[in-house]
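Design request, tokens follow.
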């Protein structure tokens, strides 16, 4: 099995090897899925960081601000769930 980093850095070599060995693999699709996975993981990481900073601010906020932060956090939770679902689906395709 090749390392994803190697495939990203040497796509033409991998395409040539796939052709020579007669393997049914779309390297461009693999690279596209890898890029999507990395992008989604970055979004998940950023959303989790925002949620963490919101939690810290919540402790110091007044009641009005807390209500706003709770609403923002609820929306962020929905977004995080959707991102995690997309990431899991993309990773399943990538690993398949």
């Amino acid at each position: 099995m090749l390392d994803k980093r190697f495939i990203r850095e040497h796509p033409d070599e991998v395409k040539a090897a796939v052709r020579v060995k007669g393997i049914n693999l779309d390297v461009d699709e693999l690279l596209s899925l890898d890029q999507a996975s990395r992008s989604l993981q970055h979004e998940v990481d950023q959303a989790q960081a925002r949620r963490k900073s919101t939690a810290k601010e919540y402790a110091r906020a007044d009641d009005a601000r807390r209500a706003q932060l709770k609403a923002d956090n609820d929306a962020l939770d929905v977004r995080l769930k959707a991102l995690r679902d997309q990431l899991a689906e993309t990773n399943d395709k990538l690993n398949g």
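Comment from the thread starter after seeing the answer: thanks! The two ends are 13 Å apart (CA to CA).
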